[in-house]
Sequence to fold (157 residues):
Amino acid sequence: MFWLSLLLFVIAAVTAFGLFGYGGRTLADGGRAGLLRGLAALCGGAACALYGWGLLSVAGAVLSAQDGGTDSAPPQVCRTPGWWERHQKGVETVDHSVRFVPLGFVCGTSDGKSYDTGHVPGYVNPAALGLALGGTGCAVAAGYATELRARRAGALE
Fold:
């Protein structure tokens, strides 16, 4: 999971860089559709950058959880507030996994339940979703503006 998280981080970083470049260039071109396409690309780039930031947090948690040795059971990252009380009641932390949508590091317990450790900052998932939806809306609006302009030009001929 650590290497997958790092691979996805690299993909998110490259995509964000490309979208920021395209968005800046498109904003400079002007026009209503160009403005909307540029905003869509910038929103997409920001969403990718935020998701990448969350992936770095997850990669750090995975690296810490996979570190064996003394005092490694349960993993340090799974020792959130309340874990000792669960342990005293006989509920042990037995597993950990990565959730990619929404992004998070999850620890499983012996009673079949699971809990998010909170390693991904709380603003990452909602902000990335909001930016992705905003970028999608801008892209759809840019397509609509381009279509209207094309229809108007066709009606004038």
In short: The first helix runs from residue 2 to 29. The longest strand covers residues 93-100. The mean pLDDT is 85.
